[in-house]
Q: What sequence folds into this?
């Protein structure tokens, strides 16, 4: 053995986009179409803690102390997860990396198995439209049917189309001021990552304000090009 890695063609994609851009929806569609596995930081941490892995135990201790889990622990958890058989067809990373420091650590981790970031896809949105889209959302408290002040109001005012319930709920953080602040924070945090992956030639930008199926088609083309 010479210590060299065995290259793998399993694609690694990153989805970048603010809350409400449709990352979860598009990731699920890519999973179904290409057999990729969506890996979100939160899910990875919870699974590692539940499984009692070494990295999971470290994360548990940190979280119980009320501190943020370090990049080293997250990378260790991700290393364990990427070794699982279901990741052999490729993965979609959601929520990691968030900084260029994390991006560089991720590159080093992937290099261990001869992998790299095949595409970092930025789901681009119009901020004003996103504020309107998210801040207008509400749901039926009875059956969970979703509505929107502008785009999908109940057919009968104050009554759910599906169950005829009259109890509607809005998320406390789905208001224009909070949504705008979340978008500002996202852009400030993600701008360096976009520049980082653009410099690597891995960045792809997708207009995420269109129809879901059209966005999915574009993403599918990106995956095919990345793995060709």
A:
């Amino acid at each position: 053995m010479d210590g060299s890695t065995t290259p793998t063609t399993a694609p690694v994609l990153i989805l970048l986009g603010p809350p409400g851009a449709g990352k979860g929806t598009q990731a699920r569609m890519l999973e179904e179409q290409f057999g990729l596995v969506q890996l979100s930081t939160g899910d990875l941490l919870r699974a590692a803690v539940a499984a009692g892995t070494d990295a999971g135990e470290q994360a548990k201790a940190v979280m119980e102390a009320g501190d943020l889990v370090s990049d080293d622990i997250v990378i260790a958890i991700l290393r364990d997860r990427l070794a699982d058989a279901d990741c052999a067809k490729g993965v979609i990373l959601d929520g990691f990396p968030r900084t260029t420091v994390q991006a560089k650590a991720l590159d080093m981790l992937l290099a261990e198995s001869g992998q790299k970031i095949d595409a970092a896809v930025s789901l681009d949105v119009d901020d004003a439209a996103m504020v309107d889209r998210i801040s207008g959302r509400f749901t039926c408290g009875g059956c969970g049917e979703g509505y929107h002040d502008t785009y999908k109001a109940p057919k009968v005012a104050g009554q759910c189309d599906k169950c005829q319930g009259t109890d509607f709920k809005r998320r406390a953080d789905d208001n224009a001021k909070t949504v705008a602040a979340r978008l500002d924070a996202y852009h400030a945090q993600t701008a360096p990552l976009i520049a980082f992956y653009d410099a690597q030639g891995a960045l792809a930008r997708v207009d995420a304000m269109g129809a879901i199926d059209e966005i999915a088609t574009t993403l599918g083309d990106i995956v095919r090009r990345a793995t060709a």
Summary: The chain has eight helices and eight strands. Confidence is low (pLDDT under 50) at residues 1-7. The radius of gyration is 20 Å.
